[in-house]
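Researcher: I'm preparing a figure for a lab meeting and need a structural model of a single chain. I don't have an experimental structure, so a prediction will have to do for now. The sequence is pasted below. Please return the structure as tokens so I can convert it later.
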Amino acid sequence: MAENRDAKVAAGMSTAAAIAAALAWINSKKVGAAPEFTLPEEFVQLVAAIAASTDTIDATTQRIIEELATLAISVQGWPGNTDSLTALRVAVAVTGTRLPSIAIPSGMSMVIKAWALNPGWLQVGASIAECTNVNQSFPLLPTEVVIYQVQNADQIYIAGTAVGCFACLTVEQRRGGGA
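Model: Understood. Here is the structure written out token by token.
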């Protein structure tokens, strides 16, 4: 380990000497004669410190790798496939409608689509007050889609802006409808 460190210090010193020689050569081309050139002691100490620190960096990197190898990483990955799906069309009132209770399996999403033949748009919110307020709701024009990852569809409220609006819902299900 000490030999490796000495080799790195020597390499650092060689690099410093090469830099100094290059600076002297450039300077001699400007003046016409090669001036006497010496490296400041601080520069030599800096290069030596850089070369010496590479040993510390190597040891620290090795320690990090060893610690990472001891970690038990649990990756859940994608949700498993479900057994079936639920798809339905829900009539939506202008005063707001709470969606029916449909359990949504963990990791799955519920898709809400505004029916293509709606005479107006839908407004989606987390309560009757939100879905009937144009400033607090999410608008859905006919055929537009929004996807939510909630635990149950009954957490969502939808209001239509005209009589005769429908929301189309679909969600994958596990047998028995459980999440």
